[in-house]
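Technical appendix A lists one of the benchmark inputs used to test multi-chain prediction within the project. The record comprises three sequence entries:
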Amino acid sequence: MEGEKKQTTRPGGLTRREFLKAGAVATSALLFSRCAPRATPTPTAPPVGVIEGATPEERALNGIRALKAAGVVKDGDTFVIMHHSGQRNNIVPALEEWNRLTGLNFQSAEVGLEADIYTKAMNEAVVRTGDYDIFLTFCNWIGDMAEAGLIVDQTDWWAKYDPEVDHGPNRYVSPLDRFTSLYKGRRYAMGADNDTFSLFYRKDMMEDPNEAKAFEDRYGRKLAIPQTWKEFDEWIAFFDRPNQGIRGAHMYAERYFAYTAWAARFISRGGAYFDDNMDPLIYSEEGVTALEEQIRLTQQHMWPDAVTGDWSVAYSRFPEGSVFFAWAWPSLGKWAQDPQTSKIAGRVGFMDIPGTMHNGTLVRACPHVVGWSFSISRYGKAPEAAYCFIQWFCGPKVGLDAIARVGTLDCFREPWFDAEPMKTAYGAEFMPVLRNLAQNAFPDISLRGAAEYLDALNLNLQQAFAGQKDAERALKDTAEAWQKITDRIGRLGQIEAWRGERQTYPQPIQDLWAKLGRFKS
Amino acid sequence: MRKTNWSQALGSGIRWLIGLLICIVVMLPITWVLSISLKPPEEWVAYPPTLVPIEPTFSNYIVLFQPGNPVGGVSEMVSAAQPVTRAFVNSLIVVPIATAASVLIGFLASYATVRFQAGGATLPLFVLTTRMFPPVAFAVPLLVYFRMLNLIDTQLALILMYTGFTIAFSLWMMRGFIEGVPRHVEEAAILDGASPWRVLLTITLPLVRGGLAATGLFVFILNWTEFLLAQVFTSREAITIPVQVSHYVGAVGRFYGPMAALGIVASIPVVVAGYIIQRYLVTGFTFGLVRE
Amino acid sequence: MTEYAPSLVRPSVRNALSRLERKLSSERVFGIALIAPMQLLLWFLLIIPTLIVIYLSFVRWEPRMGVDWWDAPFAFLGNYTRVITDVRFWSALGRSAGIVVVAVTLEFLIGMALALFFSRSFPGKRIMTSAILYPMMLPWVVVGLCFYLLFLDRGPVNYVLTQILNRPINVEWFKHPPLAMTTIILADVWQWTPFLFLILYSGLGALPKEPVEAAMTLGASRWQIFRYITLPMLKPVILIALVIRSLEAFKIFDVVFIMTGGGPGTATETISVYIYRVGFVFGQLSYAAAMAVLILVLVTMITRMGVRPLEK
């Protein structure tokens, strides 16, 4: 039956070709009928003069008034802040007050997983819905977000409105004023947090006279807070009591924060992540020794979940009393002193971070890990109005109330360290220690591709802590991976960014680098 | 060989016992989730772990619906959280609609591909490829696409995506059941003068009830628990339950209590659905309507 | 319309044939009508994004480069050569494949046993069936967290082992790659065996009883009945269940992400976790697209081989 041979499909269906044609027509018809106008970047007017007001908050509010008068915003306009669920308690009550004061409608869009914040922000860079006006993200993502064209350069607004970040009696603790907001020398963000790692130990065990005697017998010197990393290692070894159910320390060796302890040692020895050519400096004597020390400490004096658990393990182990020493974000201090959540409330001691001696000078370096800062979306409806909010929120008075509430944001302005709400929340003894720590704080890698560099580093370090690689190998592999990343992203751009970034490090560290001749300028 | 009555009863009894043991083993992790949902914060990861909470509390459940209610230490941390009602409403709208659409469309298409090879012999495989892409790779292009259609953060977007992504399941799961319906049953009806639609709806459909029920339940579960696409495509308005679960984190890590509580509460609609459809998973019905 | 040489064909056959033709042409319309909704939906939903993914795989684009995706520079096969030489990609692929093989086999065996067990009625069966189906019904996030908490160093599993064996047991489940893998497979098996059970159970329920009864009167043993009658009849259902479940197990993501994050190191990094990291965390969407396309090709080829027996 020849007639039947024309079609290539069995009866009951269309041929592939007919179907493709129909599909293409249908799809394009649908698409063009519903094309949404793309949100174009809102042109930002050059700053006109300077806004009046006695405090940053006042100036922010006056700014809104001026914007309303100029017709840029009006009552009831909706603005959306994207932030992590952990800051809900800091932000939402403040939003309600701001809305009351300005008549605008600022809303919160929270995200549960930190990684998803980055994803959503970068997605916004691509699709530009204009759905978000403000992002509250990790400081070290600023590079990516700025280069993607997502966030606005705020430098001119800082000049116009003066948030009193890096000068004045209300200034941020230096160097937090620098690395939480600068990228390539311009202000792309405003810091809203202080995530300098803080060190806590069991004061009761330290103050026990029997311990003091045993320590002196063993090490020939008085039991005291360790000042150098070598003293620190001996101190932890001494207080490691596995048969009593207390291990010496809990320091992160897990997938996302394994780098913290190593970086603290490495930088205090005078190390730096990169040189002026963006070649990694980590595979060096300082780097390898630092890692070997930390590996020894991890494998000999810590519980296994320092390597396998996630970051919240510190927040359960230390308050329950199963480790002598722990370090984490400042909130661990709050947690450990609250009788509701801690079995060791009242027995918590605070200390400065150990450092390394360099010809009689002790140089300390404390990692500032993640840390949140506000950035403004280029595709929001009125970026300047959004900026006014973040200046208001981070202001000396409003910020104090916001931070004192329970949440992930911590204390960052100088006067706050002496303020009553903070002392009540953290403990009066802790505040001066935190201030000292912050003054020696150094940032995470904040270049473009920060997550990739850190991932490669953490990957190898965790393997080293787990015993799968030795220290040299781990750092060598990391350095190679870093080179590949840099080449792929574009070395010249990274060189410029790194130069800016290393100038946000604390002055003592920069001085040490100068002495060691690390960088040309 | 006929069994005596009491050996039959004994057989039943033994089966009951074994069944019970199986259930206990299966439910063990769930009891742990339940246990956490009834524990106050300090017991969530306490050592030694206890199955029965030392100080049981309902605060985790209360916190879900009344975040501002100061019950237990948990509420201080989630005091400004959104209640779960919005997530529940969204899930309860999006998931049943998407499931029904998927099963219906999939069943029709499955019938056509099995009986008539409609669309060509390779169409089912082509459809199956929609399940082979890791969804993460698809997410951004889909995002761009849905942005063009102005559908970000809407229920419609989720319904469309859930239907589209589960059609492959419906198509393929129904396939086996439809193939199990002997052709001569349908052809007999056709020769009697029934139209193809009639055959489909009155002959085939009842015979594959079990398959439809199983497929429907499974697609429902897939949609109900889907996280990645919901997370990427919603921000405030259209968040679903799995996304809401991820919001219970705070200053010191995840709030396992409310997460566990929400997990338990969220599984109730599904359990109810599962219990109801069991009626259709009948064993051993016959093809008694075939006229010889 | 074909002409049948009148002399060669008897009238009754001719009638039957023309009736067949009528049936065919209305069948054709019928067939189109039935698959149209699916085709429309799939084309509307997936074609454009798939084209975008394919396009992305041939350019070099990352959002942080600051250019729009349609302006991105061409990379031709650059991404693909990079994928093929990427050890991390292939190990992730291997891990995913390994999980599929182990987990799905276990799920099938246990699911089949359960389905057979439940195919006879006994008191309380309905409630127990619901209980068995329960693991599927929890959101992935909760399952992942549950198993994470169970296998913590100080979690219930170690605790129970300590009590039973009367020695302090502190297995570091998440520190040793094989153990971490085991916990993930356990979580997957626990969560998805009910799926296999459900399909096989309803498949068993839809089988006609006559062949089984006939075989029993002929004196066949239970095992023989199962092996030579039940199993072959169940073949299409089994194959489909295995194919579907394997595809899903291959893409396992949420559970791994929550329990181990791919660690220790990359020991449990499945292909979905790796693509997620590359695409979402590193922002290299082009590279992720190339990986996805490559996976699509590979998986299609393999699935085709597995599905061919079904098409007979």
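The mean pLDDT of chain B is 80. The two ends of chain B are 31 Å apart (CA to CA). Comparable benchmark entries are summarised in Table A2.
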